[in-house]
Write a structure and sequence with these properties.
In chain A, 76% of the residues lie in helices and 2% in strands. Chain A has 299 residues and is an all-alpha fold. Chain A has a two-stranded antiparallel sheet with strand order 1-2. The N and C termini of chain A lie far apart (46 Å). In chain A, 49% of the residues are buried. The chains are: A mainly alpha (299), B alpha/beta (251).
Chain lengths: 299, 251
């Protein structure tokens, strides 16, 4: 039981990444590799600040700002520097490795005996593992509600139009470069915030913790879409959160089969690949017609 | 005559290896002009539109808007007063957004977008139902449909409504009925004419349809090899027939 609670908690904490990546991957319609750099950047910033005695909430917010700067750099390389988005993201992700080492001073910093957002007195009364469920739920709720509100504002709609049809957006006066940069800043800021929170939950920051992040974030988006199909925009954001939890439960199931945590990246990749191929497979193997046949009467 | 709204003076536009597409072209566009533009492929019609809209830089000459040179204004800045409908129905609308959302977006052309709620109210939807009904292609029943699921004719009608939602000082229609089947095309052409005349819009319309070019508008231009070879208005335009026009097409 406690292991399932822990998975739900992890799912809620990691859902921040899925929702953040949704802004670029689904709304702006491009894959942003920057996230593999902004995630450990957020972790490094927050953990280093906390280990220097700075308030953990302030440290977490600073991570958000630093992450959005990484997004700003990618955005400028892409829109003004005319570097393809995939490469722009990889450049910033690579550069972030060095910056993270500079920030942390070593490859790994522990938060042992330091106060984090998980040391809040309220959380101490909760049963084991419920602290990550509680914190994860509050953070993802605030972020998702804010995004739902933002996407329905005039600027939010202009942002959606930019990803949907940049030509048309420009023809009605939307500054699409600005919208793209804003989306990248918002997305990477949130990813870094996720990094800060997850590092505090783990109790350490590690230079390599960004590897495979984009796959995990994508997995929650795709699993949510495969599980729920056509939804409104707000519904899709919620589906990402549920997708993130489902992903953790799938991992739990796979690990209980006897795989080790060293296999996690391989498993993540396989889970994502399967989820992405599912609609194809469903068509090829005629799942839908077979299932339909199974539940209708024989005539 | 009064001051022209737009004035092109000796405009030269070259692309690629010094190929002049517009060769010292001059044109005055007056308030309320509905100008049909004819010309063979490569005559420079689209280049003329791209130049006015700001998608192509001019090499020499002036582009005046109320006497003020706008040659260095960006395309996005010019959308404050210029609207455009493209030939390709996919170009003018956001496919994953609904018809109503698209119209709402277009309503903010020329205005600063803020963090205010977009304000898609019941009143707005009623208003949109009215303006889309005019197009006569059931667009009014599909206000909450993603535009990607509309027919080409419906999308193009929507593009047109979006371009005219905020009255532009100049409306550029770039063969906007060409990609549609004959019936839909005629329907949209009729609706276009009705809107342009009713709302006294100033418009330039590229077409390859000689009948449309003669039937609609108060002024007709023929472009050939980067210059205007015929510019007639009013009664002179009415007196024109297809045979006379075809003579200008011989290079």
């Amino acid at each position: 039981m406690s292991i399932i609670v822990s998975s739900i908690g992890q799912g809620l904490l990691w859902a921040v990444l899925g929702v953040a990546l949704f802004l670029t991957f689904r709304i702006l319609n491009f894959p942003d590799m920057t996230v593999e750099g902004s995630f450990p950047l957020g972790a490094a910033t927050a953990v280093t600040m906390i280990s220097h005695g700075i308030n953990p909430y302030l440290a977490t917010l600073t991570a958000l700002i630093i992450g959005s700067i990484a997004g700003l750099v990618t955005g400028l390389l892409y829109t003004k520097g005319k570097i393809p988005i995939l490469l722009a993201g990889i450049l910033v992700m690579t550069a972030a490795l060095s910056i993270n080492l500079r920030i942390m001073g070593s490859a790994n910093i522990s938060l042992l005996n330091q106060k984090s957002i998980f040391s809040s007195p309220i959380l101490q009364h909760l049963p084991k593992n419920f602290d990550s469920v509680f914190v994860g739920f509050i953070i993802i709720t605030i972020i998702t509600l804010s995004l739902m509100f933002f996407l329905q504002t005039e600027i939010g709609q202009a942002f959606i139009a930019t990803g949907d049809n940049a030509n048309m957006a420009q023809s009605i006066g939307i500054k699409t470069d600005r919208m793209t940069i804003m989306g990248l800043m918002l997305s990477n800021g949130l990813i870094a915030l996720g990094g800060a929170v997850i590092a505090q939950n783990n109790g350490y920051a590690d230079i390599n913790m960004g590897i495979g992040i984009i796959v995990i974030a994508l997995a929650s988006i795709i699993i949510g879409e495969v599980a729920f199909g056509d939804l409104s925009l707000n519904g899709r954001l919620v589906a990402v959160i549920v997708g993130s939890i489902l992903y953790r439960l799938v991992l739990l199931a796979v690990l209980s089969l006897g795989f080790s945590t060293n296999d996690l990246n391989l498993i993540s990749a396989i889970v994502l690949a399967v989820a992405m191929m599912l609609p194809q497979l469903r068509k090829a193997l005629k799942f839908d017609t077979v299932i339909k046949k199974g539940v209708t009467k024989h005539d | 005559m009064t001051e022209p709204v737009f004035s092109l003076k000796d405009i030269i536009v070259t692309v690629g290896d010094n190929v002049q597409i517009l060769k010292s072209l001059s044109l005055d566009i007056y308030d309320g002009d509905f100008i049909t533009v004819l010309g063979t492929n490569g005559a420079g019609k689209s280049t003329l539109f791209n130049t006015i809209a700001g998608n192509l830089a001019i090499d020499s000459g002036q582009l005046l808007h109320h006497g003020h040179n706008i040659a260095h204004e960006s395309a996005v800045a010019r959308t404050n007063y210029i609207a455009r409908v493209f030939q390709d129905p996919k170009m003018g609308t956001a496919p994953r957004m609904t018809v109503a959302e698209n119209l709402l977006l277009a309503e903010n052309r020329g205005r600063k977008r803020t963090l205010r709620s977009r304000g898609l109210t019941k009143e707005k939807l009623t208003e949109y139902a009215q303006i889309t009904q005019v197009m006569g292609n059931n667009l009014d029943t599909r206000l909450n449909t993603a535009t990607g699921n509309l027919s080409g004719g419906q999308r193009q009608a929507l593009s047109f409504l979006m371009a005219t939602r905020v009255k532009p000082e100049l409306l550029l229609l770039d063969e906007h009925t060409a990609a549609l089947d004959p019936k839909t095309s005629e329907q949209l052409m009729l609706a276009t004419n009705q809107q342009v005349t009713q709302n006294k819009l100033t418009a330039l319309m590229i077409t390859h349809n000689l009948t449309d070019a003669l039937k609609y508008g108060n002024r007709l231009l023929i472009l050939n090899a980067g210059n205007i070879v015929l510019d007639v208005r009013g009664d002179d335009k009415v007196a024109l027939d297809e045979a006379q026009i075809l003579k200008y097409f011989i290079v």
